[in-house]
């Protein structure tokens, strides 16, 4: 069997060696080269043609974000970002994911052997997963212009409604930040319904995701808070490590966050959110599953369909970075519409009747 060829990019000799050692523990993987900055990485990608790249963000001469853009323009390749657990690292990681990177891991620390083990398992798994992404899907997802939030004014909504008769929920995982960027930034400023989102992502990164989407979008985007009143025209991102549900109380809808056990290895879980929204039968409920590994959300979508969901939508295989979660729902026979990611917003406008307003 042919080995998966990996290029490791980091300005630190120690980190290049450490990442290479973690990768080559698995005999299915092979490190075919290491680069010390983005400029060197771009050259080596053209020459070595790796299957997957691990890419540091903060490097001299050409940083990881610049290298990412250049590589995706000239030789699209699955890229996994190495992120520092710092505010700047989180912001840069979200920008990288929305500009074409397929996934990320936190940089390993040499001080804790257990942390090294966790990073090793995650790194190997994500490299193998990334190597399976069809080239055409990478190209399609990179066609849309990457957005620059410098100078963005963000949304200008005022007087967000407490009363609404429809609600939308979205579940996504690997490739989700880019997909969410495509869908949410295309919504008009006067979109009147709330949207609740589960994106599989660790704590803090979900806050950076919400903040960046808020700067780029015409609707309001926030990281959800416990007991927060759900308002129309607002997108709520579930915080990392918390399940998100919605309850109706005293004529209002409120968000509830909790840390009950993981579901299928996830917290937040799409299934938990979908099951919660299924109970709100006074509302027209629309359920959407986009790119992601595994099957989280599929059973929740099937239950929602049985409970009278108005619409169920999945992203089509042609644009998914990983066609796991949508495929699982399609196989359960509970999907009304399957559409490419760039048409999901149009479908949302159609099924909610917004275009007829």
From TrEMBL:
Q: What class of enzyme is it?
A: hydrolase
Q: Which reactions appear under catalytic activity for this entry?
A: [protein]-L-glutamate 5-O-methyl ester + H2O = L-glutamyl-[protein] + methanol + H(+); L-glutaminyl-[protein] + H2O = L-glutamyl-[protein] + NH4(+)
Q: Which InterPro entries match?
A: CheB-like (IPR008248), CheB_C (IPR035909), CheY-like_superfamily (IPR011006), Sig_transdc_resp-reg_Me-estase (IPR000673), Sig_transdc_resp-reg_receiver (IPR001789)
So where's the catalytic machinery, residue-wise? 173, 200, 296
Question: Which keywords appear in this protein's UniProt record, sorted alphabetically?
Answer: Chemotaxis, Cytoplasm, Hydrolase, Phosphoprotein
Where mainly found? cytoplasm
On modification after translation, the UniProt record reads: Phosphorylated by CheA. Phosphorylation of the N-terminal regulatory domain activates the methylesterase activity.
- The EC number(s) given in the record are 3.1.1.61, 3.5.1.44
Q: Per its UniProt record, what PROSITE patterns does this chain match? A: CHEB, RESPONSE_REGULATORY
Family from the record: Belongs to the CheB family.
The job of this chain, per UniProt, is described as: Involved in chemotaxis. Part of a chemotaxis signal transduction system that modulates chemotaxis in response to various stimuli. Catalyzes the demethylation of specific methylglutamate residues introduced into the chemoreceptors (methyl-accepting chemotaxis proteins or MCP) by CheR. Also mediates the irreversible deamidation of specific glutamine residues to glutamic acid.
HAMAP family according to UniProt: CheB_chemtxs (MF_00099)
Comment, domains: Contains a C-terminal catalytic domain, and an N-terminal region which modulates catalytic activity.
Please give the name of this protein: Protein-glutamate methylesterase/protein-glutamine glutaminase
């Amino acid at each position: 069997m042919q080995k998966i060829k990996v290029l490791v990019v980091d300005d630190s000799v120690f980190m290049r060696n450490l990442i290479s050692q973690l990768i080559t523990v698995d005999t299915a993987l092979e490190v075919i080269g290491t680069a010390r900055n983005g400029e060197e990485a771009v050259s080596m990608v053209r020459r070595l043609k790796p299957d997957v790249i691990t890419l540091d963000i903060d490097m001299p001469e050409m940083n990881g974000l610049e290298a990412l853009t250049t590589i995706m323009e000239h030789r699209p390749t699955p890229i996994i970002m190495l992120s520092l657990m710092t505010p700047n690292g989180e912001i840069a990681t979200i920008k990288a994911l929305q500009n074409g990177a397929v996934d990320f891991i936190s940089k390993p620390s040499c001080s804790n052997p257990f942390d090294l083990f966790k990073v090793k398992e995650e790194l190997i798994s994500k490299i193998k997963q990334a190597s399976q992404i069809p080239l055409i899907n990478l190209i399609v997802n990179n066609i849309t212009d990457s957005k620059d939030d410098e100078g963005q004014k963000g949304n200008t909504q005022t007087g967000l409604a407490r009363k609404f008769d429809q609600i939308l929920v979205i579940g996504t995982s690997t490739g989700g930040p880019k997909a969410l960027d495509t869908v949410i930034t295309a919504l008009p400023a006067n979109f009147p319904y709330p949207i609740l989102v589960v994106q599989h992502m660790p704590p803090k990164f979900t806050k950076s995701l919400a903040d960046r989407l808020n700067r780029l979008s015409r609707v309001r985007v926030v990281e959800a808070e416990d007991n927060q009143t759900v308002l129309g025209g607002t997108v709520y991102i579930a915080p990392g490590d918390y399940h998100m549900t919605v309850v109706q109380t005293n004529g209002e809808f409120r968000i509830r966050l909790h840390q009950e056990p993981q579901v299928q290895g996830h917290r937040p879980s799409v299934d938990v959110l979908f099951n919660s929204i299924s109970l709100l039968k006074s509302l027209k409920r629309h359920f959407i599953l986009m790119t992601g590994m595994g099957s989280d959300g599929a059973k929740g979508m099937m239950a929602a369909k049985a409970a009278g969901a108005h619409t169920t939508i999945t992203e089509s295989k042609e644009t998914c970075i990983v066609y796991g979660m949508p495929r699982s729902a399609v196989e359960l026979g509970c999907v009304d519409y399957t559409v490419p990611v760039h048409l999901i917003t149009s479908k949302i406008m159609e099924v909610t009747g917004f275009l007829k307003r």
